[in-house]
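Supplementary Methods, section 5.1.

A reviewer requested that the exact input to the structure prediction be made available. We therefore reproduce it here, unchanged from the version used in the analyses.
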Amino acid sequence: MWDVLLDAFLDTLKLSWVLLIFYILIEFVEQKIAVKMRDKLKSRYSVAVGAGFGIVPQCGFSVLASDLYSKSQITLGALLAVFIATSDEALPILFSSINQDGVWLKLLTLILSKFVLALIAGYATDFIIKLAKRKKKEAQDNTDKERIDENHVQFQTTASGQARVGDEMSRDKIDNNESQTLTARVSQNSHCEEEEHEHGEHSHVEDEEEAIDIHKGCCGHHIDDAKESNVKKYLLHPLLHTLKILAYILVVNVVMGILVYYIGEERIAAFMAKSGGLQPLLVTLVGLIPNCASSVIITQLFLADTISFGSCLGGLIVNAGLGIAYLFKANKNVKQNLAITAGLFVFALSVAIVFHYALAGLI
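The structure derived from this sequence is encoded token-by-token as follows.
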């Protein structure tokens, strides 16, 4: 048993320096592009920007996206693009294990798959929402026109047989008023369509000036905080984050070591193989846990070839860093948050099942 614990400790220790260097680099990247990401996410290319920034292994970006969405400043498609592309701790762990056979292929396939899926889901979501709103607006316009036609017919019936000029003037006046009313309504609908955000009405809308300027990283520190020293930003926070992730990895290694010691590696592999279609479901459910630990567990199981690439992909898609957890905190529309989470879960599970069988034995 002591050998199991020692091996788990040594395996974890081997990753420490790689993770520390990686998180220092990520801190530099995040400090430099956090504000730029906020601005770009509010542009017409928000979905592509969200998918691109989401690839950066830092769950602070998914938190930022949730904050912007809760303030009606980005579309639902952009939010989902960030969530789907985010891999949380998966990429740092894969990078730190790059010397293992086949890890490069796993890493590149994971990044490419999540980026493409983020683009597809994001653009499809925004397109469907725009189409639904357009149909709703057309239905409203048709209703207004029908009401004007009915009023016009009623007026003609009432005024039939009357030859007075005043009646004609009254009719012209009514038609003119109705036309002005319709024109005003259509103009108002067009203005609202431009101003209203694609993801619908929220319970509260913040001013543009209240957009997030300082947001929290995984360990609770504020990004873009000018008051913090460079030592604290670029050394202390990455060090603390590295220690936290190493603690998660150590726990996973110990548990896996104990299971292998008492059960046997062949039996564990056989059990996971026999689980079949249940494996993607189980791993995707684990991904719903709003914590770095869930992505660590999923990635470690994937590296050990205990779960398939499809299962790993599904779990990491629905994980979305701390984005979902922050969404429930920032956005007061609970039903909307539940719908977003459920939709993301269904999408992740569908992807997991497809890739689980399509790439079986290849990655």
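The CA atoms of residues 105 and 363 lie 8 Å apart. These observations are discussed further in the main text.
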